[in-house]
Amino acid sequence: MTNTIYDTTHESDLMLIVGSNPEAAHPVIGMQIRQAIANGKKLIVVDPRDTGLATKADVHLKLKPGTNVAFANGMMHIIIEENLYDKDFVETYTDLEQFEKLKETVKPYTPEKVAEICHLNADDLIAAARMYATAKAAPIFYCLGVTEHSRGTEGVMSLSNLAMICGKIGRPGCGVCPIRGQNNVQGACDMGAMPTDFTGYQKVKNPDVVKKFEDAWGVELNKNEGTKATECFEKMMEGKIKGLFIFGEDPMTTDPDTNHIIKALSSLDFLVVDDLFLSETAKFADVVLPGRCYAEKEGTFSNTERRVQRVRKAVEGPGNSRLDTWIFTEIMNRMGYNQPHLTSAEIMDEIASLTPSFGGISHERLDSEEVAGQGLQWPCPSADHPGTPILHKDGKFSRGKGTYYIADYVPSQELPDEEYPLLMMTGRILYHYNNCCMTGREDGINNIEGSSFIEINTEDAKALGIEDGDIVRVSSRRSAIRSQARVSTKTSKGECWMPFHFTDGNANWLTIDALDTIAKAPEYKVCAVRVEKAKDNDEKVDNYLNVTVLDDNACKCCG
Ligand SMILES: Nc1nc2c(c(=O)[nH]1)N[C@H]1C(S)=C(S)[C@@H](COP(=O)(O)OP(=O)(O)OC[C@H]3O[C@@H](n4cnc5c(=O)[nH]c(N)nc54)[C@H](O)[C@@H]3O)O[C@H]1N2
Ligand SMILES: Nc1nc2c(c(=O)[nH]1)N[C@H]1C(S)=C(S)[C@@H](COP(=O)(O)OP(=O)(O)OC[C@H]3O[C@@H](n4cnc5c(=O)[nH]c(N)nc54)[C@H](O)[C@@H]3O)O[C@H]1N2
Ligand SMILES: [Mo]
User: Fold this and answer.
1) Residue 56 carries which DSSP code?
2) CATH number among 2.60.40.420, 1.20.120.230, 2.102.10.10, 2.40.40.20, domain 422-546
3) Which of 254, 397, 409, 498 could form an SS bridge with 69, CB 3.0 to 4.6 Å?
4) Which residues pair with 4 in a beta bridge?
5) Each residue of 164-219: pLDDT tens digit?
6) Which of 189, 325, 434, 500 to mutate for ligand 2's pocket (most ligand atoms within 8 Å of CB)?
7) Measured between alpha carbons, how far is 331 from 169 in angstroms, rounded to an integer?
8) DSSP bridge pairs for 496
9) CA of 242 to the centre of ligand 1 (A)
10) 95 C-alpha to center of ligand 1: Å?
11) pLDDT tens, position by position, 27-50
């Protein structure tokens, strides 16, 4: 996030939420947004479903999934046409040549055209554009409804363009605010868990950076960028990746097109999985290493607002489990690199010594009265630096003038047709966490939500002869599963929605492995499916995961 949770919910007069369901996925922030609404702040929600916050919004744009770029371009069209953009900000702080190109690009995105692409009412779009542009301060919150598309990065860039032309960046109550996913996914990215970056987004492509790390670690490093996680599966099938170490991830449940994943993992010579539990992926492994969870370790997590916070060990790890850092250190030693076991405070000191944006962060400081349990927001370059709550302050972008990355709307990769007539989105519910390895063990939670379901629109259900609660067969070009129908108007006609948490009847047997052209995140939010009333004899049940699989586990697209 460019800004903080506090300023976006307290110092704004309007909040624009695009493709994010914080009441379910970020309940603490969701609660603060609800409070902000109760305090009189306006709300625009852009989401294909009637989420909890959508029902409380001043304007709910219930757009067709996969059309965010058209929506954002439409907003900018109206704002520029009506001269509601922030001329001072644009002229002083942004690249004017690019702004002219942006104007040209959004010109054809008239309210009528966008209404048609996005299945919206043009007047609602105009109302939303005027409200956002004229608000004194307004943040844009976004999440996976924007990013998990084949044109997801372009969706993000389009929202940044919108914030920039309205001068709603670099000051309190504004900003472009992706609400991050896992508790420490921000920290994982900050620490270089990406094949293109070392810690603090220092680039592998930069020889000076590589040299710095080589000197610090006393080894020669590979100068090439690595393979993005989602691109590894293809390489496994091609035999280019033969061994794999998976650490805290369960692609068998959470990656798209499970048949594809089975095929990829089966192609490996050797698979190691480090996890808390015997996940579906761990069942495939040659070696399983039992890791320890957040409550069993010391360290720091970086939250969604770049706030590095201390985590303290509360309980001992069970049985033979080991800290993930212990496992990595042992592997380094056994592979011939002499690496002493360090405490998490010592690891933090090494991070600070090699990472300019973390230069002033240490356990000592985080535990001190100065910080008083609030953590420190990076960039925090030195021990006397207070941290940085708001990025790009006063229009100062790190690259100089703010630039516009301009994109046209491109439809999703797989759209409904006669054979698979419904557009399916997937996502999460409040009660379960991703692969369910942790939350699925709790009877109390499973009693509330314990099995696969699919939300279908009332009119579609009627046409298909399906009633609320019926067991249905859901199929896509990749596979078929059983689930339970929930019939309502929460999704629009022609659209349906499924959670991906449940092992039995998991949505990822159906999802498509199309990737975002830039970030390579999967297009989890759009694929085409057919829903029909399940019959006892219409499919065979596969033993693995107890779901129905077409063609003896063979993948339809690659055989
Ligand atoms: N309870 C719970 N909380 C979680 C998680 C969990 O599993 N359970 N997972 C965590 C993780 S890893 C993450 S990344 C976050 C994700 O948090 P979110 O992104 O908020 O969650 P999702 O349900 O994936 O999707 C958000 C919204 O996108 C909408 N959407 C779908 N397609 C489109 C589209 O094309 N355009 C627009 N504008 N909207 C669309 C959906 O209707 C949905 O309301 O949640 C985190 N928090
Ligand atoms: N269809 C569909 N699929 C999706 C999504 C969607 O919206 N739709 N969302 C996607 C998103 S945003 C995400 S982030 C992924 C999440 O997918 P995953 O990362 O695969 O799922 P998680 O449940 O977050 O965590 C995976 C494993 O980490 C283990 N674990 C937890 N803590 C620790 C630890 O400290 N150490 C170790 N070693 N292991 C630990 C858990 O036991 C669990 O088995 O799913 C993706 N899949
Ligand atoms: Mo995520």
Assistant:
1) G
2) 2.40.40.20
3) 409
4) none
5) 999 999 999 999 999 999 999 999 999 999 999 999 999 999 999 999 999 999 99
6) 434
7) 44
8) 424, 456
9) 33
10) 33
11) 999 999 999 999 999 999 999 999
